[in-house]
Amino acid sequence: MSTALLRHFIDGEFVASPQTFANISPVDGRVLGQVCEADRSQVDRAVTAAKAAQSGPWADYSASQRADLLLRIATGIEARFEDFVAAEVADTGRPVQQARTLDVARAVQNFRTFAELLRQSGGEIFEMRGADGNDVFSYSVRKPHGVVAIISPWNLPLLLLTWKVAPALACGNSVVVKPSEDTPSSATLLAEVMRDAGVPAGVFNLVHGFGPNSAGEFLTAHRDVDAITFTGESRTGATIMKAAAEGVREVSFELGGKNAAVVFADCDFDAAVAGVLRASFTNAGQVCLCSERVYVERPIYQRFVAALKAGAEQLKIGYPDEEGVNMGSLISHKHRDKVLGYFQLALEEGATLVSGGGIPQFGDARDQGAYVQPTIWTDLPDHARCLREEVFGPVCHIAPFDTEDEVLRRVNDSAYGLATALWTRDLKRAHQLSRRFRVGMVWVNTWFLRDLRTPFGGTRLSGVGREGGRHSLDFYSEITTICVNP
Ligand code: NAD
Ligand code: 6OH
Questions:
Q1: What atom in ligand 2 is closest to the CA of residue 156?
Q2: Which of 60, 67, 397, 409 is 20 to 30 Å from 354 at the Cα level?
Q3: 152 alpha carbon to ligand 1 midpoint, in Å?
Q4: Considering only CA atoms, which residue is closest to atom 34 of ligand 1?
Q5: What confidence tens digit (pLDDT) does each residue in 77-135 have?
């Protein structure tokens, strides 16, 4: 058994707790190490340190100095790139190649992007004629909220955490972050990078633990937290919103999805098959943006189902560092139980199983891991729970459709509203249809292609607010308007 102990980072120092929990590998069920669980007093110390940092040297950093610091953090992550890859892979079981090209690369990019945006951002200025004939100027300045609580999930741990930490620091806040209990390692490494990059004590704090009656709840309930940003399940978002209501704190929520892909008969067929394969099975389907509902125009429906089945059955499932591996394990056995529950429910709801539907057998240590097969269903009725609830696993349902209006109605008939992907060569149709989906993001002939300056977020159960580019700067700052009559 490993002796690794992951600690909190509070007021510039690593600190332990008497209470710990095990970090379990989803690849083979091994105990990777122990993680400290913050109690209420440690969370209080972290928030108090963050608040104190608001009146320390950090308050005197100019925007340009904060941008320089973000660049040093980016360089610090790059310098330990492979350590971050190893941490992310150990906690999640994802392919090493994905950790390199997506997770850790994006973490670096997140800090660089917000450093650049910060240098370019300016306030608004308006000129008017005052009653005495003077030219009066109104301008706005951005200021930090103060202490921002950042609560992140396990599916893209470092990517999603840094997507929030970078703009929060760019705007001059202090942060207390609480990564998912399932993925504590990369956040702990990030604390080391913060320390080594010279982030002033108290500006970046990290507490480990669970949600209810643990670090997550203690943090969101803390009265000195000024704003809360959260990525995770919609239900958890609702709970956190109640906590935020005390003190009327600002929130930003990136929540679940039950996203659709719509494939028209005029699409580039091979590109659409490859795109939907990626959109349904990347990260074993554990991306909030994954397409779990696929609608295919009837003339190409049968051919599409056959091609997606062939593609799914060619995906290589295995150890993260195996040559050519496409899909790793799910995050945990607990999550696998949930996904397997949907596999069972789909059959009860009348699904035809086109592919997968079970647990792969390896005949080695991976049989103790949290693997499932990529799974494709057809023939579910639109009201089936498997078409309404987020599974968050490597699974999609394919249904035929006949008209644009019909598919629009079926796609929009969802409590979620995160993303839709359209596959068509008819760009006029794509433009007209895109705006009619009740979602935050539409991709046309692609998926998960992100310019980090664009707004990101969802409608209804999928979230509150937008982050990305200046939308992040808006969330992570307060604006004061100053009107000057010279
Ligand atoms: P989760 O809601 O279970 O947990 C997320 C985080 O919240 C964890 O750190 C957890 O410890 C904490 N938490 C749980 N209960 C809490 C409470 N009562 N108070 C404070 N903190 C609490 O989500 P998850 O299972 O880790 O992540 C998967 C979910 O995240 C999926 O629904 C997925 O769609 C969603 N997600 C959404 C986006 C997006 O951008 N829209 C991105 C990634 C993931
Ligand atoms: C959800 O699982 C993925 C979210 C992705 C982003 O927030 C992003 O910035 O790419």
A1: 2
A2: 409
A3: 6
A4: 256
A5: 999 999 999 999 999 999 999 999 999 999 999 999 999 999 999 888 999 999 999 99
Report if residue 441 sits inside a domain: yes
412 and 448 together in one domain? yes
254 in active site: yes
Residue 208 lies in a domain: yes
160 CA → ligand 2 middle, Å: 6
Task: Tell whether ligand 1 has an atom less than 6 A from the beta carbon of residue 239.
Answer: yes
Q: Per DSSP, what are the bridge partners of residue 401?
A: 297
pLDDT at 3: 62
CATH number of domain containing 400: 3.40.309.10
Instruction: Give the ligand whose atoms come closest to the C-alpha of residue 106.
Output: 2
In a domain, 36, yes or no: yes
The whole domain housing 56 covers 5-255+462-484
38 lines ligand 1 (CB under 6 A): no
346-350 contacts at long range (C-beta below 8 A, 24 or more positions apart): 346/377, 346/380, 346/384, 346/386, 346/397, 349/380, 349/381, 349/384, 349/385, 349/386, 350/379, 350/380, 350/381, 350/384
Query: What does the alpha-carbon distance between residue 386 and residue 401 come to, in Å, rounded to a whole number?
Result: 18
Q: Both 423 and 443 in a single domain?
A: yes
211 C-alpha to ligand 1 centroid (Å)? 9
With a 6 Å cutoff on the Cβ, whether 218 touches ligand 1 is: no
Measure the N-to-C terminal CA separation of the chain; round to a whole number of Å. 71
| One domain, residues 157 and 83 | yes
Q: Are residues 35 and 136 in the same domain?
A: yes
Task: Using the predicted structure, report yes or no on whether residue 1 has a pLDDT greater than 50.
Answer: no
pTM above 0.90, yes or no: yes
Q: Is the model's pLDDT at 2 over the cut of 70?
A: no
Domain assignment of residue 475, yes or no = yes
H or E segment and range at residue 88? helix 81-92
